[in-house]
């Protein structure tokens, strides 16, 4: 069934449910439209967090796997350089390091 056309011709019919005046809204003068079904789901029946945990795990893995090559190599290089610097500093401040490089100061 095809819904009826909306007629915008103005009319003086009763406004609102049970003939109550609702203000300027609702009186467009058109007949009641038929053949349009409207469905709604109660807010209590919805599941707003449905699949959130599952989607979060897989989305996190997908994003991590696409970005790991951008941050892992600099992170590894910085770690190796820091380890070398700590080891070198400990050697230079030890007794053999001071004996080896005592003449340079």
From TrEMBL:
GO cellular component: mitochondrial inner membrane; respiratory chain complex III
Main location: mitochondrion
Top-level taxon: Eukaryota
Alphabetical list of Pfam families matching this protein: UcrQ (PF02939)
Subcellular location: Mitochondrion inner membrane
Family per similarity comment: Belongs to the UQCRQ/QCR8 family.
Function: Component of the ubiquinol-cytochrome c oxidoreductase, a multisubunit transmembrane complex that is part of the mitochondrial electron transport chain which drives oxidative phosphorylation. The complex plays an important role in the uptake of multiple carbon sources present in different host niches.
PANTHER family given in the database record: CYTOCHROME B-C1 COMPLEX SUBUNIT 8 (PTHR12119:SF2), UBIQUINOL-CYTOCHROME C REDUCTASE COMPLEX UBIQUINONE-BINDING PROTEIN QP-C (PTHR12119)
Quaternary context: Component of the ubiquinol-cytochrome c oxidoreductase (cytochrome b-c1 complex, complex III, CIII), a multisubunit enzyme composed of 3 respiratory subunits cytochrome b, cytochrome c1 and Rieske protein, 2 core protein subunits, and additional low-molecular weight protein subunits. The complex exists as an obligatory dimer and forms supercomplexes (SCs) in the inner mitochondrial membrane with cytochrome c oxidase (complex IV, CIV).
Name of the protein this chain belongs to: Cytochrome b-c1 complex subunit 8
Organism: Coleophoma cylindrospora
């Amino acid at each position: 069934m095809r819904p009826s056309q909306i007629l915008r011709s103005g009319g003086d019919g009763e406004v609102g449910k049970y003939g109550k005046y609702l203000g300027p809204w609702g009186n467009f003068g058109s007949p009641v439209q038929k053949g349009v079904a409207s469905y709604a789901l109660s807010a209590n029946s919805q599941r707003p967090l449905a699949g959130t945990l599952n989607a979060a795990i897989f989305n996190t893995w997908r994003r991590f796997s696409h970005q790991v090559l951008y941050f892992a190599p600099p992170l590894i290089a910085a770690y190796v350089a820091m380890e070398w610097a700590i080891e070198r500093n400990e050697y230079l401040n030890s007794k053999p390091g001071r004996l080896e490089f005592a003449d340079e100061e």
